[in-house]
# Entry
Amino acid sequence: MVKRVESWVVTDEFWQRVEPLIPARSAADKSYMRKPGAGRPPKPARLVFEAIVYVLRTGCQWKALPKERFGSASAIHKRFLEWEAAGFFEALWQAGLAEYDQMEGIAWRWQSVDGAMMKAPLAQEAVGPNPTDRGKKGGSKRHLLVDGRGVPLSLVVTGANVHDCKRLDDVLAAIVVKRKAPPHRRSKHLCADAGYRGAEHLRTIENHGYIPHVVGRRTEADIIKQRDPKKKARRWIVEVCHSWFNRFRKLLVRYEKLERSFVALNHLAAAIIAFRKVPADVNIIYG
# Structure
């Protein structure tokens, strides 16, 4: 029986996949260099990564990281920003998708797109009035494109007042792994809710090579029942993916001031979701 570990613990299996992607610290960066016997040595990369996962999972503030376990919170946050600037978190997401594609196969044929809003009381970038909260300031939105099993393929963050359709082209263009052109157009479908209906948005979908399926939730369910009662509606899978993101408590309410920090945490969550979709015999167990 496999022992369950805490959700923020980085197992040896997971670290084997993460470690090769950790950015090397530049010799030009003298901020971490020290004279012999002076100051504290740099924190091990695995400890830093585990601290970042701890923040992502628990939702705690950076300064609230347990000092007895991780040491200086400011040093952890500094390394987090360094890794974000080096593109580490997106690279880890790409690696997760690559392994998922190799072991299971990305379900390219039926993809789904949708956005989800969250409160962002401290955000200074990619933030706007929340139309679902009486127009109060301090809201952000995560736009997702997922494959047929709900694994995230593309992610864009905007203010909550930005309609999903306004960033549709960006979301479809931002897929982090590229698919070989399918031999037939019928092998590339995109499901979206009625909010994406409109000639301009349908053209955007078609320009990216998709066959659009843009209908309301009830209408989609009725169509499926009429055609084959055993089949289920397909668009709901993107809503499931948003719920997976919300299980990372740091993403449920956005407290990150900078867009780059919030996007990096979303990329890390996307990487974990992708790795966890790898078949069980080679899966990574971390909470």
